[in-house]
C-alpha cells in the first residue's frame, strides 16, 4: 500500500469496504486485494465512526504546525518586535537584526532556540527576509516630514495646478572611481574581488524628473557649484518655455547659496525652488535615479575619467528614453506621496 499514491490507496480502501459490504469475508478480501486483516479492521472502524469520508486520503505527513515551537500569536509578537523595534531598544545591542540576535530574543522571551536553517524557515513563514536597510538620519524631524507629505507638498501641487505649472524633483550626485557597489555570486566564505583602477577620479551629474516621466540631466567633471547649478536650471526652464516649474530640491548648500537664490529671484515667472525637510533625502524620487545609476555603473569596466563620464551619460540617456521607468521612481513606499499628474 505504501508504494501506491494517496489517490490509489483511497481507491483500494473503498473497493475493500464495498466488497465486504457485499458479503466477502474479511480474510478473503485481504487475500484478493493484497492487504492485511488489521488494515481492514482499522478502515472499518474509521468508516463506522466517520462514514465514507473517513476513508479518503488526507494530506500526507504531519499536520501543518504540529511541530512548531511557537504558536501563531507568539510568531505574530516576534514579527511585530522585529518590524517595529531595533535590537538596541530591546536590550540586544546594535541597530541590525541578525540571526544571532533573533535567536537570543526568542530564547529570552519564549525559551526556545532555532538552528540556522530552522530560523530562516521561521522568518520566511513570518514574511520577513534578510535585506540591506535604507539609511535614515537620526537628525531627521518626523514632524517636519509628516508636514511635508501631508501639507506642504499638496499645497505646492495645488498651486502648480492653478498656474498650469510643472512640479519637478532635482538632485545632484557624485560618482567616484573607487566606489564599489552591487553584489555578485562567489564561493561561500571567500569574498569576490573586483579589479578596478587604483586612480581616483570622479564626475558629477544633476538630473530633474517629473511624475509624467520626463527627465533631463547634465554630466560634468568640475565641482558642483552655484555656477554649474544655475547653468543647469537655465537648461531646465529652456525645455519648458511655456510653463513655470516648481522645482523641489534638498538643502544642499549650493541650492541655498546666495547666487542661486538671486538668480531664481530674477526668474520667478519661470521657476521657483522648494526645499525638502532637512535630513530627508529619501523623500526625493530623483534619489532613486542616482541609486539606479550607481547600480548600473558597478557592472561597467571603467579605466579612466572619460569612460566614467561616458558611461554615466549613457546610463542616464537609457533611463531618459523610458518614461515608464522614470514614473516608477515615484512608486517607492517613501516617494509615493509625490505621485500625481502635474
TrEMBL record:
The major lineage groups are: Bacteria, Bacillati, Actinomycetota, Actinomycetes, Kitasatosporales
The name under which this protein is listed is IS630 family transposase
Q: Which GO terms describe its molecular function?
A: nucleic acid binding
- What residue stretches are annotated with the Winged helix-turn helix domain? 96-151
The record's annotation in Pfam families points to: DDE_3, HTH_28, HTH_33
InterPro entries, per the entry: Homeodomain-like_sf, InsJ-like_HTH, RNaseH-like_sf, RNaseH_sf, Tc1-like_DDE_dom, Transpos_IS630-like, Winged_HTH_dom
Residue stretches making up the Insertion element IS150 protein InsJ-like helix-turn-helix domain? 13-62
Q: Boundaries of each Tc1-like transposase DDE domain copy?
A: 167-308
Amino acid at each position: 500500500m505504501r508504494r501506491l499514491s494517496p489517490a490509489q490507496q483511497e481507491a483500494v480502501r473503498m473497493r475493500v469496504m464495498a466488497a465486504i459490504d457485499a458479503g466477502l469475508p474479511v480474510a478473503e478480501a485481504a487475500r484478493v486485494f493484497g492487504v492485511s486483516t488489521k488494515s481492514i479492521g482499522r478502515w472499518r472502524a474509521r468508516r463506522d465512526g466517520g462514514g465514507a469520508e473517513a476513508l479518503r486520503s488526507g494530506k500526507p505527513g504531519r499536520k501543518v504546525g504540529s511541530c512548531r515551537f511557537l504558536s501563531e500569536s507568539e510568531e505574530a509578537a516576534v514579527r511585530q518586535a522585529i518590524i517595529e523595534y531595533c535590537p538596541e531598544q530591546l536590550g540586544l545591542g546594535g541597530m541590525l537584526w541578525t540571526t544571532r540576535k533573533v535567536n537570543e530574543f526568542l530564547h529570552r522571551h519564549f525559551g526556545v532556540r532555532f538552528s540556522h536553517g530552522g530560523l530562516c524557515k521561521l522568518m520566511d513563514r513570518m514574511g520577513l527576509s534578510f535585506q540591506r536597510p535604507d539609511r535614515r538620519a537620526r537628525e531627521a524631524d518626523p514632524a517636519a516630514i509628516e508636514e511635508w507629505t501631508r501639507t506642504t507638498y499638496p499645497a505646492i501641487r495645488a498651486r502648480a495646478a492653478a498656474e498650469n505649472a510643472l512640479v519637478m524633483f532635482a538632485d545632484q550626485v557624485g560618482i567616484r572611481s573607487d566606489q564599489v557597489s552591487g553584489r555578485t555570486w562567489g564561493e561561500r566564505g571567500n569574498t569576490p574581488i573586483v579589479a578596478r583602477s587604483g586612480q581616483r577620479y570622479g564626475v558629477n551629474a544633476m538630473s530633474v524628473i517629473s511624475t509624467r516621466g520626463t527627465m533631463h540631466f547634465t554630466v560634468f567633471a568640475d565641482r558642483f557649484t552655484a555656477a554649474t547649478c544655475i547653468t543647469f536650471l537655465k537648461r531646465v526652464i529652456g525645455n519648458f518655455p511655456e510653463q513655470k516649474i516648481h522645482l523641489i530640491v534638498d538643502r544642499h548648500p549650493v541650492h541655498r547659496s546666495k547666487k542661486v537664490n538671486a538668480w531664481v529671484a530674477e526668474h520667478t515667472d519661470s521657476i521657483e525652488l522648494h526645499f525638502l525637510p532637512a535630513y530627508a533625502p529619501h523623500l526625493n524620487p530623483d534619489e532613486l535615479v542616482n541609486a539606479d545609476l550607481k547600480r548600473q555603473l558597478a557592472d561597467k569596466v571603467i579605466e579612466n575619467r572619460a569612460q566614467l563620464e561616458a558611461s554615466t551619460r549613457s546610463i542616464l540617456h537609457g533611463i531618459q528614453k523610458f518614461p515608464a521607468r522614470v514614473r516608477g521612481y515615484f512608486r517607492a513606499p517613501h516617494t509615493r506621496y509625490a505621485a500625481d499628474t502635474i
